[in-house]
């Protein structure tokens, strides 16, 4: 019986040794897995940072391109539009032919644009409302001096909630002289009509007169293309927000995903058709 017990003990000891060896190997594997996971998370963070930067650049580019609708297609007008719609500094447009103001009004037509002047009795209230509710604001017909009340806004010394303010300033003066401190706070942009831009506008007027349906289709197409591109962007943002939540916590994610996929396909098809039609219209305009 004693011998039997010793044999059982030896067997149990061998099993225990094997188990301990297996446990040690498992612990080593776990340590390696944890290391690999940490490295993967660091790599993911690097790629995520790069992705976020690229995504922001793409969104900014889409916004800029969409916002150029309605401008003449000469290089200077396009460059002016890009500068005016950037977020670096608020634009002050030298706009004697009112081309810039017309473009701003058309670009912001669906966003409750507030139009005012520095001399308006409602100016302060309109300014406060635009900051509070994020409505775009156009201050037109300024002279060579600006109201000091604009200083903290032009310097962007206000809360993060107000940083969505879209502010535009225009002057009808053909050759204004602004003080250096004003030039340091705004982007002064010369929207005076160029020869190429004038040719574009005259062509539009000619076609509007002789082939009204073609020009109307071109304008409608430009607006629809801008609207569709913005819709795609909103769908992507909505989907990203949904995907950041748990599927269990938000069962509507699958429904949103299916709806987004269907709508995105429809919108992309419209954008492709719009681009093809745009090329045909451009050929006809020439």
Automatic annotation (TrEMBL):
Organism expressing this protein natively: Rotaria socialis
Coiled coil: 2-36
Assigned keywords, A-Z: ATP-binding, Cell projection, Cilium, Coiled coil, Cytoplasm, Cytoskeleton, Dynein, Microtubule, Motor protein, Nucleotide-binding, Repeat
GO cellular component term of the entry, any: dynein complex
Example of a GO MF term: dynein intermediate chain binding
InterPro entries linked: AAA_9, DHC, P-loop_NTPase
UniProt-listed Gene3D superfamilies: 6.10.140.1060, P-loop containing nucleotide triphosphate hydrolases
Domain (Dynein heavy chain ATP-binding dynein motor region) ranges: 69-267
GO BP annotations, alphabetical order: microtubule-based movement
Transmembrane regions listed in the UniProt entry: none
Compartments it resides in: Cytoplasm, Cytoskeleton, Cilium axoneme
Name of the protein: Dynein heavy chain ATP-binding dynein motor region domain-containing protein
Higher taxonomy: Eukaryota, Metazoa, Spiralia, Gnathifera, Rotifera
Keyword check for tRNA-binding: no
